[in-house]
Known about the structure:
6 helices
Amino acid sequence: xxxxxxxxxxxxxxxxxxxxxxxxxxxxxxxxxxxxxxxxxxxxxxxxxxxxxxxxxxxxxxxxxxxxxxxxxxxxxxxxxxxxxxxxxxxxxxxxxxxxxxxxxxxxxxxxxxxxxxxxxxxxxxxxxxxxxxxxxxxxxxxxxxxxxxxxxxxxxxxxxxxxxxxxxxxxxxxxxxxxxxxxxxxxxxxxxxxxxxxxxxxxxxxxxxxxxxxxxxxxxxxxxxxxxxxxxxxxxxxxxxxxxxxxxxxxxxxxxxxxxxxxxxxxxxxxxxxxxxxxxxxxxxxxxxxxxx
Length: 294
């Protein structure tokens, strides 16, 4: 099997193409869990299987979507994800460079159709799925503390996100993490893990801790479900956070730049949620993993 390894602002993915090779979507979970293991295989936060539109429509229970192709997304632990913002930008570049689509394209995901636009060789903009839920003022009790959070689901079925201010006691950890420095601090990781699995959230959630840096800027640290750790960037988390910052009146205007560890992602909130950022083709090759059993 031929593969591409890509990342979008440090959020990295293994891509296989079932429009060109005979790959059964039923094997996607095993492929993801095996190939995304960093010490034993290629290594990545997630796995994307490119599918013909008709096959993806069959998997999603949809018809006549008009999409150019399908993006079947799985987390590194083998669990299926509804969609991935950074992954969608990467898959847009893959689609353009392999001739599956043009500079403007539509991709069918399990959360719905995502549109993408090529800005230049490496930068792509996607319109994220519209939110099916966007609520502020969700108070979650945890270990004697009450956290004032917001909850967003992008798409239907939606990608769940918690959004909340970064506690001041973890500013030092965030500075180290966002700057790429090593830190032994585990307190925020434990908080993220506990909130990610909070009993009030039946689907679990990605947990996005934000810190304002100005009227049009913020930092974000995201603990992702399915990866079960902090990731270098989260596209849907960045879009969800921007939406909540706007609802809370914390940003001035419709645009915000949000710094993830892997880079800055730009969000525009105008008749939708538009996410712009870089893509990087890390490697192309052939899967020869001898531990892979299908």
